[in-house]
Automatic annotation (TrEMBL):
InterPro entries: ATP-dep_Glu-Cys_Ligase-2, CP_ATPgrasp_2, DUF403. This is Circularly permuted ATP-grasp superfamily protein/putative alpha-E superfamily protein. It holds the Pfam family CP_ATPgrasp_2. Residues 1-12 have a biased composition (Low complexity). Coiled coil: none annotated. It comes from Bradyrhizobium algeriense. Residues 529-824 form the DUF403 domain. Residues 1-21 are annotated as: Disordered. Residues 101-480 form the Circularly permuted ATP-grasp type domain.
């Protein structure tokens, strides 16, 4: 028995050695930076217990398994299209996720959350006074200039009691460990804190890639925070089932992906300023059913851009009249306009005394020592030892007079620039603060098979609830690439990391799903904003345009690739295909003498607006504005199509293969929409876009290839383009003949590719949509669709000459335009005032 026990111990030791050896190899160059706190190495020089537990479990994975899981996380980010934009850029970047989380133990986290909750409550009380009685300024607790100097102090909302009772519904603070190892506040975010959606996405990716490790570490769940935040916004409204919108600047915003993620996860409507209208004391969403009341607006638009009537008149992002609605208590806005005034660094030096005055206690969490140069003593202190300070703007990120968007390190400036800075502070000190130089604490990151320390900033979120401030267990972590970074921005080559707050005891699973008895059953999907319906309609049209172009490319290229797969296309048919591609902007007139160049250009040209690549990019661009409405599977298909067509190929076989694969993906996308989308207005507009464009393209194909003198080759091309070869052969025992082909492609109501079928489907969709007028008369889109359907029902195939087909094509174009003008109005008629009365 003794020998057996010894053998068992030896086996356990041998199993432990590979993991320990791997950890030693990963850590061989890991060293805490001098004088800088580190998350892995504690103040005593030993690894922290939570990190030791993590690396022991991490090392149990084989190197191949680790790399596979890393690749899985990267693939998910790419396929899901998780992106961001750096400040000043127009192109999206793939989200850079660190493969290792930031780990914080439960006891350490409790100290951090106590400081965050106290700071959030202090800021709520300060805002209540600044926009209310103003006692803090009157009593001298805060200099008036420190408030009035900020562009975020909005006189338009002074005296306005915030609907819902709070100025702050969401607060965030950027924190790091100070020199003493405690958490310090680096920046406050009270305007419209960003990052919670990316924190959520980080969690989804990493918890899937390392599911067992995630569970074994007892990581606190983030769902209860988002549930509490959603419930708090719902409770702030003045009716039981409020309508909540998330106001975004639009698809060109640097963090638009996050807006869509939060809207989808929380069940909010993603809206832009143009989606909203004011009437009386309420704000409404423009929808395809008219105006619908909005109760709560979670804004991601800066305060000054919210109302061009009373704030920045040049803004196109806000809602004219919104401030007046706030005065009338007509909508809850989170956070309240003007709350960004507390982000001014000019106020930092006064916060400790304000905390004692308003809360009767000292600050739990310190912040960077700050001297506002608007006061004589502080200004003289900063100027006397300028080289020891980081100079920041008192009211914004930029330092006045300098191009840098971050701090200016006076000690690193050339003498002439340092003198210029000194003079600027002397002349107008109100615009500057001096802060002590702080180097960020570090956390482990994975780099090329090793673990190395990198500086980080952690953004912690607090949501106001009836029970007090709820803290997100984790947060939004940004990690710098440089070892000596003093600030981290996602535009500076940084990466992000998931944040694991770990416990020694098991953590109960949680979800945003409510109890079975707490939700009233519904069978409608809610309202569809006109902008979203417009985008869905054009998404359908772009998808169908791409399919039509790809079918032309395949028809032209298949005989070139392999004559056995099709007859040798006759010269007149080739000419007609090429002419269509030129007319559609897919290729140029100059390339028509070379069919191989035609199909290459029509498939992959970035310059030609009608090429398959350009059209698929239009699909992606339009889908970007609909991220909250598209499934991950749909987005993955769109991403794969763009990636495939972006890979340049030059031989005929590869071009046709790429076209065929993309056609298959378009069919998959159509199948997803048909089988998975709820049959509400959103699906209808997507399908209407496809049907309208398919009808137009089919009529155009028929005009080009089923003309009066068309031969068998032309008719065969038409059957291929409209995907009716099998149907025709099953019906007729002869080769393609003009009248039967015309009937099948244009008039057959049972053929899902015919013009008649598209018009009948459009008619059904339009009839199912709500009427926007109250006079009871048939509206223009339905009038045109009914007339078209009657024409097609009574027409005879023998009479469909080129002139008739051209007239049909024009009628279809007019119908598509009528749908857009009716359901997606722009300009002064967009508000549809006739629909205001009686709408909830």
């Amino acid at each position: 028995m003794a020998g057996q026990g010894s053998s068992q111990g030896s086996n356990q030791e041998s199993k432990a050695r590979p993991g320990q050896r791997r950890i030693a190899q990963w850590m061989r160059d890991y060293a805490r930076l001098p004088g800088i706190p580190d998350e892995y190495i504690g103040p005593d020089g030993a690894p922290r217990a939570a990190w030791t537990r993590f690396f022991d479990a991490f090392a149990a994975l084989s190197p191949a398994d680790i790399e596979r899981r890393f690749a899985s996380a990267d693939r998910h980010l790419r396929e899901a299209g998780v992106t961001y934009r750096a400040p000043g850029e127009t192109a999206d970047r793939l989200w850079p996720l660190s493969h290792l989380p930031l780990i914080i133990d439960e006891a350490d986290w409790q100290q951090l959350t106590a400081g965050i909750a106290q700071r959030a409550q202090l800021f709520e009380m300060v805002l209540r006074d600044l926009y209310g009685e103003g006692r803090l300024v009157t009593d001298g607790a805060v200099p008036a200039a420190a408030i009035a100097g900020s562009n975020e102090y909005l006189r338009a909302v002074c005296g306005v009691k915030p609907p819902g009772g709070r100025h702050l519904q969401l607060y965030a603070a950027d924190v790091g460990r100070g020199p003493d190892g405690r958490w310090w506040v680096l920046n406050d975010r009270t305007q419209a804190p960003s990052g919670a959606g990316y924190a959520l996405e980080n969690r989804l990716v990493l918890s899937r890639a390392f599911s067992n490790l995630y569970k074994s570490m007892n990581v606190e769940r983030v769902a209860p925070f988002f549930e509490a935040f959603r419930d708090s916004l719902r409770a702030s409204a003045d009716r039981d089932e409020p309508r909540i919108g998330l106001l975004t600047p639009g698809a060109f915003s640097e963090t638009y992906f996050e807006h869509a993620t939060l809207a989808r996860y929380l069940g909010f409507l993603l809206v832009e300023g143009d989606d909203l209208a004011v009437s009386g004391d309420r704000i409404y969403i423009r929808t395809v059913a008219g105006l619908k009341r909005l109760d709560v607006l979670l804004r991601r638009v800066d305060s000054n851009f919210l109302d061009p009537l009373e704030l920045d008149a040049s803004s196109h992002l806000g809602v004219p009249g919104l401030i007046d609605v706030l005065r009338k208590n007509g909508v809850v806005v989170a956070n309240m306009p003007g709350s960004g005034v507390l982000e001014a660094r000019a106020l930092l030096g006064f916060l400790p005394s304000l905390c004692r005055r308003l809360l009767g206690e000292n600050p739990i969490m310190p912040h960077i020592a700050t001297w506002w140069c608007g006061q004589k003593a502080a200004r003289e202190e900063v100027l006397s030892r300028l080289e020891d300070f980081a100079i920041e703007g008192a009211y914004g990120r930029a330092v006045p007079g300098f191009s840098s968007h971050g701090p200016v390190l006076a000690g690193e400036l050339p003498p002439a620039e340092r003198d210029r800075l000194r003079q600027a502070i002397t002349d107008r000190g109100i615009d500057y603060v001096g802060q002590e130089l702080v180097r960020l604490s570090t956390t482990p990151v994975w780099e090329q098979g090793r673990i190395t320390p990198r500086p980080f900033v952690l953004r912690v979120f607090a949501a106001a609830t009836p029970q007090g401030w709820t803290i997100l267990p984790g947060g939004f972590c940004r990690i710098a690439e440089q070892a000596d970074a003093r600030a981290v921005s996602m535009g500076d080559g940084a990466r992000s990391a998931d944040v694991w707050v770990v416990s020694d005891k098991a953590v109960s699973a949680s979800t945003l799903l409510p109890g079975a008895d707490s939700v009233r059953i519904r069978r409608i999907a809610g309202v569809v904003p006109s902008r979203a319906a417009d985008n869905l309609f054009w998404l359908g049209r772009y998808l169908e345009r791409a399919e039509a172009t790809l079918r032309l490319i395949r028809a032209l290229g298949t005989p070139m690739r392999d004559p056995a797969k099709g007859s040798s296309t006759a010269l007149p048919s080739v000419e007609r295909i090429q002419r269509l591609l030129v007319t559609w902007g897919a290729t140029s007139q100059a390339t028509r003498t070379n069919p191989a160049r035609v199909i290459a250009e029509a498939l992959q040209s970035e310059e030609k607006f009608g090429s398959a690549f350009s059209l698929v990019r239009s699909v992606q661009r339009t889908a970007t504005s609909l991220r909250e409405r598209l499934s991950p599977d749909a987005w993955q298909i769109i991403t794969e199509m763009v990636d495939r067509l972006a890979l340049q190929v030059d031989d005929d076989d590869s071009i046709v293969s790429a076209a065929e694969l993309t056609l298959q993906e378009l069919a998959s996308l159509a199948g997803l929409a048909q089988e998975n989308m709820n049959r509400a207005a959103g699906w209808r507009f997507l399908d209407m876009g496809r049907r309208a464009e398919r009808a137009i393209n089919t009529a155009r194909f028929a005009r080009q290839f089923a003309y009066d003198e068309a031969g068998e080759e032309d008719l065969d091309v038409l059957l291929t383009l409209v995907d009716c070869q099998i149907t025709y052969r099953s019906r007729y025992l002869v080769g393609p003949a003009l009248v039967p082909v015309r009937d099948l492609a244009v008039l057959d109501p049972y053929n899902p590719r015919s013009v008649a079928f598209q018009v009948a489907t459009l008619n059904d969709h339009i009839a199912a949509l709500p009427s926007l007028k109250e006079h009871g008369l048939i509206e223009r889109p339905q009038r045109l669709a009914v007339a078209l359907q009657a024409t097609l029902t009574t027409a005879e195939a023998a009479a469909l000459d080129v002139k008739t087909l051209f007239a049909l094509e024009q009628d279809l174009l007019n119908l598509a335009d009528a749908i857009g003008l009716h359901y997606f109005p722009h300009g002064p008629n967009a508000s549809r005032p006739e629909k205001l009365t009686g709408l909830a």
